[in-house]
């Protein structure tokens, strides 16, 4: 029984219940200040500046992680702290607040979280956007929890740091259309690695037939049929109205849909954690 590795699993409940350290606030502040200094010039210069800023900021964290992994006297302590930092996140509280907030407050809060113009969203549109945000967040979380199996805390921390940069410099934000492109592709690719566990825990138990839907976009359609509510529809980005197909049944999402999804997502993380613990206990 791998007792030291099993102890790393405590990082998950610790990240849920203990107050978060100011690490990510400092990381976002660094990202914003660096972007304010170098995000200038024409499109080509902005793309180059974005790539170099990414290399400087995330590369510095990578170098620190390598030094710690090679020289630490207590590697499991370092990995445990890294997992705790990677799993500490304020977005769950934001998404949970969407279940009870009024329309005006919900528009402001969700617009900040999703980098969208939510000023004209109806309550139904806000619920749809919150479900989509929770889906993206859940894929990230499940991938981070899976990294507990190989005790890869520093990898989880580096991955979360990349996602944070991709979020702060997202091309959907005004002035970041060119600057944020360097981080976006790898961030989406890594997030896609969390798709399989998300489908396994959130879609398969609810409605297995949803996995075979032909509606597009497929991910959104599978989630819509599993939750039993309609998703998709027009999206406003960079001041432009983008037409997207509506997928799923005709039932509009509601606060109850958000609560159900939140409970399912938390159960998915817990189920993944228990399976990892069982594997480590038997190996």
TrEMBL record:
<dbReference type="GO" id="GO:0009236">
    <property type="term" value="P:cobalamin biosynthetic process"/>
</dbReference>
<keyword id="KW-0169">Cobalamin biosynthesis</keyword>
<comment type="similarity">
    <text>Belongs to the CobD/CbiB family.</text>
</comment>
<feature type="transmembrane region" description="Helical">
    <location>
        <begin position="264"/>
        <end position="282"/>
    </location>
</feature>
<protein>
    <submittedName>
        <fullName>Cobalamin biosynthesis protein CbiB</fullName>
    </submittedName>
</protein>
<feature type="transmembrane region" description="Helical">
    <location>
        <begin position="46"/>
        <end position="68"/>
    </location>
</feature>
<keyword id="KW-0472">Membrane</keyword>
<feature type="transmembrane region" description="Helical">
    <location>
        <begin position="142"/>
        <end position="163"/>
    </location>
</feature>
<comment type="pathway">
    <text>Cofactor biosynthesis; adenosylcobalamin biosynthesis.</text>
</comment>
<dbReference type="GO" id="GO:0005886">
    <property type="term" value="C:plasma membrane"/>
</dbReference>
<keyword id="KW-1133">Transmembrane helix</keyword>
<dbReference type="InterPro" id="IPR004485">
    <property type="entry name" value="Cobalamin_biosynth_CobD/CbiB"/>
</dbReference>
<keyword id="KW-0812">Transmembrane</keyword>
<dbReference type="GO" id="GO:0048472">
    <property type="term" value="F:threonine-phosphate decarboxylase activity"/>
</dbReference>
<keyword id="KW-1003">Cell membrane</keyword>
<feature type="transmembrane region" description="Helical">
    <location>
        <begin position="183"/>
        <end position="204"/>
    </location>
</feature>
């Amino acid at each position: 029984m791998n007792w030291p590795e099993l102890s790393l699993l405590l990082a998950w409940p610790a990240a849920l219940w203990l107050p978060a350290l100011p690490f990510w606030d400092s990381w976002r502040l660094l990202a914003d200040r660096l972007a304010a200094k170098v995000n200038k010039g024409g499109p080509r210069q902005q793309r180059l500046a974005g790539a170099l800023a990414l290399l400087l900021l995330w590369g510095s964290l990578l170098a620190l992680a390598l030094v710690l992994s090679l020289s630490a006297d207590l590697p499991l302590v370092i990995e445990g702290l890294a997992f705790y930092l990677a799993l500490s996140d304020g977005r769950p509280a934001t998404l949970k607040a969407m279940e009870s907030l009024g329309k005006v407050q919900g528009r402001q809060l969700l617009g900040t979280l999703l980098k969208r113009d939510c000023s004209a969203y109806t309550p139904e549109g806000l619920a749809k956007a919150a479900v989509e945000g929770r889906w993206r967040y859940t894929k990230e979380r499940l991938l981070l929890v899976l990294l507990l199996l190989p005790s890869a805390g520093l990898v989880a921390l580096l991955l979360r740091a990349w996602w944070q940069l991709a979020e702060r410099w997202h091309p959907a934000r005004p002035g970041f259309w060119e600057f944020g492109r360097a981080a976006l592709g790898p961030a989406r690719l890594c997030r896609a690695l969390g798709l399989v566990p998300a489908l396994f825990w959130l879609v398969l138990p609810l409605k297995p037939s949803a996995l075979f839907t032909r509606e597009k976009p497929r991910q959104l359609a599978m989630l819509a049929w599993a939750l039993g509510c309609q998703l998709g529809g027009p999206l406003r980005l960079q001041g432009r109205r983008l037409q997207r197909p509506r997928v799923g049944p005709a039932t509009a999402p509601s606060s109850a849909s958000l609560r159900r999804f939140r409970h399912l997502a938390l159960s998915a993380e817990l189920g993944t954690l228990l399976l990892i613990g069982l594997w480590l206990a038997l190996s």
